[in-house]
C-alpha cells in the first residue's frame, strides 16, 4: 500500500457532542488513534470526556460509534453524579434515537475502572485487551477508551532522581505504546487527558507558557497573545497518532478572569 492509498482511506470519527468542536476537529475524535487533551486543572477535561463517552453510543448516522466506552479514572472519586446528570440530558436530546431499546440507560454502556499507579496501569493492559475481545460481540462493543488523567499516574510516585526519571519515562512510553497498539487492533478512539503546568524560563521565572506536566504524549507546546497582551494557551490541543490523519487542531480560549473552557 502506497502513502497515497493510505491518505485516501477514511478514518471513522466520534462526535464530541458539540457542533462547534466537531467542526474544529474535522468531524470529531478519530478512531485507530491516540488523542491527547491537554489543559489546566478545572478547564473541563473530565466533562468533555464524560460527554464523549455518551456521544460514542450514538449511531454513525448521528456521528457516533454505536459503541460502549471504557473510562479509566485516576482521580478519585469518579464523578458518577455528573455522569448521571449528563446521561439524563443526553437522553432528552436524542429521544428518538434509542426509542427501540427497552429500558435504555446510557450509563450502562460506560464501563468504569479506577487505577492508582502507573505500574497498575501497565499491569492491567492484558486484562483490558481480554475485555475488549469479549465485549466485541455485544450490541455496543467498546470503541472508546478514556484515561482521565494520565498525569495523575506519575504525579507523586516518582522522585526527581535519575533512576526514577528513567523508570518513569520507561513506564510512560510502554503505556503509550500499548494504548496505540490497542487503538489500531480494535479500531478504538483512545483519549487521554493531561494537565499542564507553568514552564519556568531561564532567568525570568514563570514565563506564562503552559506545557503538559509529562510532556505531551503526541503534541508540542505553543503560545500566543491576545490583544490585551495576556498569554493565550490552548485549552484543547489535539494531535493524531495515525499518519492517515496528518492535521493538528488547537483551540484557544481566554476569559476575562483567566483561562477556561
UniProtKB/TrEMBL annotation:
Gene3D superfamilies the record matches: P-loop containing nucleotide triphosphate hydrolases
Q: Name one GO cellular component term.
A: Rad51C-XRCC3 complex
Compartments annotated for it: namely: Nucleus
Give any GO molecular function from the UniProt entry. ATP binding
Spell out the InterPro entries in the cross-references: P-loop_NTPase (IPR027417), Rad51_C (IPR013632), RecA_ATP-bd (IPR020588), XRCC3-like_C (IPR047348)
GO biological process, any: telomere maintenance via recombination
Q: Which UniProt keywords apply?
A: ATP-binding, DNA damage, DNA repair, Nucleotide-binding, Nucleus
**Domain RecA family profile: residue ranges:** 10-196
Q: What is this protein called?
A: DNA repair protein XRCC3-like protein
Organism, as annotated: Senna tora
